[in-house]
Amino acid sequence: MLRQVTHTDQIVSLEFSDGTTARFHAIWLRDNALDPDTRAPGNGQRLITIGDIPADLSISTASLVGGALSVTFQPENKTVTYPADWLAVHAYDRDHDHPMGWTAPGITTWENGIAAPSADWGSMHTNPAIKRDWLAAVAEFGFARLTGGPTEPGALLKVADLFGYVRETNYGRYFEVRTEVNPTNLAYTGLGLQAHTDNPYRDPVPTLQILYCLENSAEGGDSIVVDGFRAAERLRDANPEGFALLCGYPARFEYRGSDGVCLRARRPMIELSPDGQMMAIRFNNRSSAPFVDIPFDRMEAYYAAYRQLAEFIDDPAMGVAFKLEPGECFIVDNTRVLHARTGYSGAGSRWLQGCYADKDGLLSTLAAMDAVHPEAAE
Questions:
Q1: Most CB contacts within 10 A, which of 129, 231, 345, 376?
Q2: What is the DSSP string of 144-187?
Q3: Structure pTM?
């Protein structure tokens, strides 16, 4: 609820019932008006352009009406009402200073010792609350497991169907992860793999990866996940200058694994938004191309920071390890969580299938479920 409203011709000042205050500019309020002439009632999309708003816009009146804000704009002589809770959620009159490498609300970084989020396949399909919590875990922690699923080839596509769509690549709709003769990718051998993000040579990268187990009787082959955001936080705290170098200069990645494929990308290993928010990690030694975008006098310091980040990623205290059983899978946010595996022997068999999907579909499904059942998000 609103307690008090004052205004000039360009600014509305509010005091909420909890004592907090906020100011809003006339142009912002008019651009974000909630009336059906400004926003389509069915989907909420804006019906006007910035050019449709008068350049000489001003506020003639602003008052409380039933606990909401009512504003009249000139020269349109247009009155719009804004709910108090909507204004509180969208207030921008606040401290916008953040430390470099801050993480968004709702993101929890982690190290070894975290209880791996997990759900049962059958329960996911019968209980929306379990599905919602599983999706929320992926959003918060960047990974989650799923157990008790079917063991026929292609079952991983049903996991993607829970929230979105498969992103097809040159590897196909999905790909096999098992030992091959003359493999096109080291993932198709029994070698151990350092923790990495997949496909950093794509722009944009696939934002989700699903790895689904069909057979796993070989000795070894444990899966490991590492929170890249947490590794970046450790680098930031230990070596701020090195952190700034990995954020400030692009690395290069390349893949030429088969005929007709030559993928290249130029992106920083640690990507920040303009206001310093941690956005993405790209770390994959196998796919690194020569770094040519770092100034000569900073190259040695860049490599020192790169080495230090790798040491944090390789630190056993960072990784969560588990061995997948047939019918189990895990999903990772490929812009944040790195995955690895221990080596495995030729005895027995290890057969996983993998596919890519997009995080916007998962977040959309989660937001839609929370909109229908907001109590589930509390």
A1: 231
A2: EEEES---STTTHHHHHHTTS-B--BTTBSSEEES--SS-SSGG
A3: 0.91
